[in-house]
Amino acid sequence: MIPALAQSSVLAAQTAFPILPALIITPLLSAVAILLVPSHRQSEVRLVALAGSTITGAMAVWMMAAFDKTEAGFQFVVNEPWLTSMGLNWHFAVDGISLFMIVLTGILFPIAILAAVPQHDSKAYHAWIMVLMAGSMGVFMALDLLLFFVFFEVVLIPMYFLIGGWGHGRRIYAALKFFIYTMAGSALMLVGIVSLAFLTASRTGNALTFDVTQLAEAQALGTTAQRLIFLTFALAFAVKVPIFPLHTWLPDAHTEAPTAGSVILAGVMLKLGTYGYIRFGVYLFPQAAYDLAWIFLTLGVVGILYAAVVATMQKDLKRLVAYSSVAHLGFIVLGIFTLNTQGLTGSVFQMVAHGVSTGALFIMVGWVYERRHTRQIAELGGLQKPAPIFAAAFTLVMLSSIGLPGLNGFTGEFLILLGGFQAARWWTVFAVLGVILAALYLLWAYQRVFHGTPTGDNIDMPELKASEGLVLLPLLVLIVFMGVYPKPMLERIEPSIERLVAHVEANVDGFIEPGPVQVPERPSDAVTLTEALEEAEKKAAREEGEVEDSVDEEGREASLAEGETTK
Amino acid sequence: MLEAAWLIPALPLAGFLTLLLLGRRLGEPLAGWLATGAIGGSFLSTVVVLIGLLNKAPAERFYIQKIFTWIPVGSFSVDLGFLVDPLSITMSLFVTGVGFLIHLYSIGYMHGDANFSKFFLYLNLFAASMLMLVLGDNLLITFLGWEGVGACSYLLISFWFDSDANASAGKKAFVTNRVGDFGFMLGTFLVFNQIGSIRYVDVLTSPITAGAATAIVLLFLLAAAGKSAQIPLFVWLPDAMAGPTPVSALIHAATMVTSGVYLLTRLNPVLAQADPWATSMIAWVGAITAFVAALAAISQTDIKKVLAYSTVSQLGYLFLAVGVGAYIPAIFHMITHAFFKALLFLGSGSVIHGVDGEQDMRRMGGLARFMPITAGTFIVGWLAIAGVPPFSGFWSKDEILLSAWNENPALWIVGFVTAILTAFYMTRQVILTFFGRTRYWDVTNEEIAFAYDQFAEEAQAAHLVAAETVDETSTALDKARSDVAKRTEALTKAQNSLAEATNALAESSEGLEGYDKLVKAVEKANKSVPKAEAALAKATSKVSELDDAVDQAEGLVVAAQLEAKRAASRRTEAPTVSPVVTALTEAPEVEAFVDKLPESYHERKEYTPHESPWTMTLPLVVLAVLAALGGAINLPFAKRLQFLGNWLEPSLFVNEAHVTSATSTKWLLAVVAVLGRLAAIFVAFRVYLHGQGNTEQIESKNFALAVTWDAILARFMGGPGRTLFDWMAWFDKTFIDGAVNGAASLAQFTGKELKTSQSGLVRQYALFISGSAGLIGLWFVVRLFA
Q1: Size of interface A-B (CB pairs under 8 A)
Q2: All residues at 6 or more sequence positions from A453 whose CB lies less than 8 Å from its CB, including other chains
Q3: Which of A394, B333, B753, B765 counts the highest number of beta carbons within 10 A?
C-alpha cells in the first residue's frame, strides 16, 4: 500500500529528485570537503561547514514545502535493494511524524555552528558536526530497522568526540558516561531487531525483511514475544530520551558539552528516543505499547515532577536547563503513551518546540559563559541592567519554556495534557503540577541571574551583539510563530498520527481512541446560540412568570417610595 | 459595525509591536502618547461595536468573529475568535475606558524613568491580553489572555528589577497564579472531555451532569481564586504593589484581578447545573476573603498596601455575589469598583509622586492643602468605596448585600461587617493622608537613630583619641621619670666628684705638681653641681606636669565612655512604635542634633509637597465623576432604570437569581447598612483626627490573619519546602547517579579481579578445568539420584 501511494501522480513531482539521500550526502560531502581544506585556513573551514549545513537546511525546508499535507502515509520514498539475501534495503521516507524533525535538524545545525566558535582544532570540530548532521538526518528517515540502527549508533561517535574534545571541565568523564550509557541501552535493541525480523519471517513464511512498514503490517508476534522485544527497544529509547531514572548522563553531557553540542543534543538527539517510541515502539508493537503504557505514563509523570524539583536546586545554570529538558521530555513521553490523536500530535509538536526553545536557551547560556566565564548562578546577578536586550531575548525564550500560551511551548504541552486527560486522567492531573514547577525554577533562576543590582564583573556584562541577534532571530521567530499559528505544522503532523492511531485501533483488541464523552450535536455558530437562548428564555418565562410580576410590583413600589422620600 | 470587534484587541497589540520596534527611538513622551492613542482607539472601537449590538434585538446580541483556526487536532479545534455579547462588551468598555485614563496618567507618572517606553510597551501588551481574555470565543483564547495578563503583571511588578523585593514579588505573583492555572487547565480538559468542545457557544448550551458541572466549577474556582486573589491564593496581591502605581491601578485593581469573576460569570450556565454546595463555596470563599482582607487593611501603614488589601476584600464581594447567583450586581460592583479603586490607586500614586516617593501614611497628613485636586478626588473615591449614598459604591455594594440576604442571612452579616470595616479603614487612610498635622517634615525614627548613631560614633571617636592621649602622655611620663632618675644620678655623681676634688685639694699642698689642675677640677665640679640641680628640678617639674596630663586624659576617656553609653541608650530608647517624632525641641542640644540628621531629612526640609501635572489630575477628575455618578447605570427603583441589568440579561441565560425580599426589608437593610458605615466613619474621625482611643490596639497585627497566612506560607516555602527540594537534589546526585557510577566501578573492579585469573600458568588452568569438570559431574550425580 505504501509504495503504491508513493508512485501516485500526486507524489510524482516529489520523487523526481532524491531529496532524502541528498539530505544525508550533502553534510557528508561537506565533512570531506572540510578535511581537504588546509588546516591553517580556519575561516574557510567554518565557511564550508556553514555552507554545507545551510544548503542541507534549505533542502529540508524545500522538502517541507513540497510535502503533501493531505497524505498520511510516507512520502519522498526511496527504496533500493541493499543486501537482498538478508532482507536489507535502502529504505528512506518521510511522513508527518518525521518531517519536522528533519526540518528542525536542518535549521538547528547551521545555528549551532554560528552560535559558538571552537577554541582549537576547528577543522576536526566542524567535520564531526557535519558527520553528526548526516547521521541525524538518516536516523529520522530510515525505514529499515538495521539501517536505522546503524544511524542510531553512528550519531554517538561524533557527539562523543565533540564532548570529549571541545567540552568544559569534566568533559572526558561526561563523554564516556554518555557513550557507554547509550551503547549499553541500545545493545539489547539489536537483539530485539534481529529477533523481530526472524520471528516475523518464520511466522508469516515470507522472506526475511527488516522493513519497518512490512513488519508493522505483519503483526505476527505473540503477546509475550511482542512485549519482550518491545522492551528491548523501549530500554534503548528510554536511555536516549532520557526517562527517569536513566537520566543522569544527560546533565553531565549537557553541562560539559560545547554550546553546539548542547544545542544539538537537546534539540535533535534526545528526540531520537521519543521519535523511536512513536515510529518503532507504537507502530511495530501496538499491543505491547498499549499493555505497558502505564509504565511509561508513570515514568513520564515522575520525570516531569522529579526533574523540575531537581532543576530548581541546581547551582549551575546550564545544569538547570539540562534538568528542565528531562522534565519537558517527560511531557512528550506522557503524550506518546496516551495513544490518542491530541496527545501524540502534541508530542511530535513538542519535540520540535522543545528543540527550538531549549536550543535557544543553551545558546544564550553559552554566551553568558563566554562573557562571564562562569555558569554558577550565585556568581551572576543583575545582568538585565548592563544587557537589557539580552535579558529580553532570554525572557521570551524562558516564557516559551514555561509554556505561555501564544508561544511554542504551550501548543504541544496543552495538546499532550488535553490528550492525556482523555486517556490517563490521574496521570495528567499530576503532570499539570509540573506546569507550576516549571514557572518556579525558571523564574527563580531568572531572578538570580538577571534581576537585582549587578556587582563585580557583572556590571560590565556585554550587551547582545547584532551578529548574535541574527543567529538567535530565527529561533525567536519560530517561538512566536509556532505559538500563534501552529496550524500549518499541526495539519501536516496530524494525518500521520491519525493513521498511526488507526493502526493501533486495528491491532489492539478492544482499544478505541480515548476521547470526549460526547460531542456537540449541532454545528456551533452564532445562530444556534441565539436559538438556544430563545429556548432558554421561553422556558424561564414559563417557570418564572410570577417573578416578573413581582419585579413590576417592586418597580412600582420603589417609585412610590421614591416619591414619598422626595416629599 | 460588529465587524470592528477584532480591532479592540488588535489596536493595543499593534501599539505593542510598534513600541517593540521603535520604542527607544520614540522615547519620552511620544512612546506614551502612541500607547495611549492605541488604547483610546480600542475604546472607540468598543463603542462602535456597542452601538452595533444596541441596534439588534436583545436576544440577537451575539456575534462571533473568527480570525483563523488556532489549534486544530482531530476532534479538537479552537479558533482565534471573538465572542461579542453584552457581557464581553461591558468588560471591554471599562477595560479600555479605565485603561485609557491610566495610560494617560502614566505619561505623567513615569516621567523621567529610564525605561519609559518599555513601560508603555508592557502596558499595551497587557491591554491586548486583557481584551483577548474577555473577548475570546472559547476557553483557550481566554486562557491565552489569562496567561498573557499574568506575564505582563510579572514583568510590570518587577519593572524596577534592581531591588530584590520587587523581583521576588513578580515571581511570587506568577507562581501563585500558576497554582490557579492548574485549575484552569484541568477545568478546560474536563469541559472538553464532557462536551467535546471548549467553545463558549457549546459550553453554554450543552447540558452536562451535575457531578461534572460541580467538578468544573471547583476547578475554575481555583483558577479564579488565583487570578482574583481570593483565599488561599491572595498572598501575591499585596506584594504586587512593588510595581509602579499605574500598574497597581490598572492591573491589580481595575482589570486583571476581576478576570476570575468574569470567568465564573461567563460560565453561569455551568454554575447553574452544579450542585448547590459548589456555588455556596464560591460565596463563602468570597465572604471570608472580604472580611479577612478588610481586617488586614486596618493595620497597614503603606498607602498602597491598604488599597491592596481593600482590593482583595472588594473582590471577595464579587465572589460572594457570583456565588449567590447575583451576576448583575457582581458586574455592577466590578464596574464601580474599577472606577473608584482606579481613582484611589491613581490618587495614592499622585500623593506618592507629590511627596517624593514616600509611601508611609504615618509620614503624610495634612496633604490636602498641597494637592487639592488629588485630595478632592480621593475623597470622592473614599465615599464611593465606603458605600455612602449616593456615590456609586453604595448602589452596587448594597445590591450584593441584598442578594446575600436573600440567599443566606449569615452571608449578609459577614458582608455587612466587612462594609463597616471598609468604611473605617478608608476613613483612617483619608485622615492619615490628607488631614491633621503635616508630618512630612517630621524627623523619622530612622533619622533619629541615624543621628544618635552619629553621636555614638563621635563619642566613640573622642574616646579613642583620649585613650590615645593617655597612652602617649603615660609614655612621656615614664620617659620623664627615667630622666629624673638619670638627672639625680648625675647630680650625685657631680657632688661626689666635687667632694673628691675638694678632698684631693685639701690633701695636696699649693705649689705642688698638679695643684693647679686640682683647683681647676674643683672649680669645674663646683659649677656642674648647680647645673645638675637645675636639670633635676626641670625634669621633676615635667614629671608632675605629665602626671596631671595623664590624669586629665584619663578623665576624658571616662567622659567619652559615658557619652558613648548615653548615646547608645538614647538610640535604643528612641521611639519605635510611631515613626514620627515631634519632641525635637525638647532635646537639650537641638542644633547639634539637627546637624547630625541624615541628608534625607535636610533634603525633605527643602521639599514642598506638590500637586501633579494635568496628565495625572485629568484622569483623576474623570474617574471621580464616574465614581460619584456610576451608580446611575443600574438604579434599583424600577426595572427600566436597571440599564446594566437589562443589558446583561441575554448573557446570563436566565440564571440570574431574583431577590424575593419584600420592599420594606430592602429599605430596612439599606438603612441599617448605611447607618453602620456612617458610625464607622464617625469613630474613625474620633480616633484618627481627635486622637481618642488606642490606635495600637485597633491596628494590632493579631487581627491581620491575612498577613499571618502569608507569613506561614513564606516560612514553609523557605523552610520545609526548600529542605525537601534540597533533599531531592541530593538524592539524585547520590543515589540515582551514584547507582550509575557504582555500576561502572563494579564493572571496573570485576575486570581487575578477573584479570588475575589469566595468569598464563598451565597448572592453574588445569586446576580450573578439572575443578569445573568435577563440579559438573557432581551436579549430574545429584540429579541422577534426586
Answers
A1: 225
A2: A381, A382, A385, B162, B163
A3: B333
Amino acid (1-letter code) at residue B126 = F
Residue B719 makes CB contacts below 8 A (sequence gap 6+) with none
Which pLDDT belongs to residue B534? 85
Show the 3-state SS of A46-92: HHHHHHHHHHHHHHHHHHHHHCCCCCCCCEEEEEEEEEHHHCEEEEE
Length of chain B: 786
A343–chain B Cβ distance below 8 A for any pair:
no
Could B73 and A345 be called an inter-chain contact, meaning their C-beta atoms sit closer than 8 Å?
A: yes
Residue B603, Cβ density class (10 Å: 0-12 exposed, 13-18 middle, ≥19 buried):
exposed
Query: Which DSSP state fits A461?
Result: P
Q: Is the pLDDT of residue A155 over 80?
A: yes
- Give the gap in angstroms from C-alpha A527 to the nearest C-alpha of chain B: 8
Grid cell of B399 as nine digits = 445590591
- Main-chain dihedrals φ then ψ at residue B355, nearest 5 degrees: -110, 30
> In this model, does residue B374 exceed pLDDT 60?
yes
* Calpha distance A135→A259 (Å, rounded): 19
Cell of B634: 443600574
- A376: three-class secondary structure by DSSP: strand
Q: Which residues of A touch B740 (CB under 8 A)?
A: 177, 181, 248-249
Q: How confident is the model at residue B637 (pLDDT cuts 50, 70, 90)?
A: confident
Three-state secondary structure readout of B652-720: HCCCCCCCCCCHHHHHHHHHHHHHHHHHHHHHHHHHHCCCCCCHHHHCCHHHCHHHHHHHHHHHHHHCH
What would the 3-class secondary structure string for A127-193 be? Answer: HHHHHHHHHHHHHHHECEHHHHHHHHHHCHHHHHHHHHHHCCCCHHHHHHHHHHHHHHHHHHHHHHH
Q: Give the model confidence (pLDDT) of B404-445 as tens digits.
A: 999 999 999 999 999 999 999 999 999 999 998 888 887 777
- The pLDDT tens digits of the residues spanning B594-619 come to 777 788 788 888 888 889 889 899 99
Whether the link from the prior residue into B390 is cis, omega within 30° of 0, is yes
B624 at interface of A, judged by CB pairs closer than 8 A: no
CA B636 to chain A, closest CA, distance in angstroms equals 8
Residues of A in contact with B639 (CB under 8 A): 551-552, 555
- In chain A, the percentage of residues whose pLDDT exceeds 70 is 89
Please give the full DSSP string across A261-316, using - where no structure is assigned.
HHHHIIIIIHHHHHHHIIIIIIHH-HHHHHHTHHHHHHHHHHHHHHHHHHHHT-SB
* Prediction ipTM score: 0.89
Q: How far is CA B320 from CA A456, A539, B291, B414, in A?
A: 53, 27, 11, 10
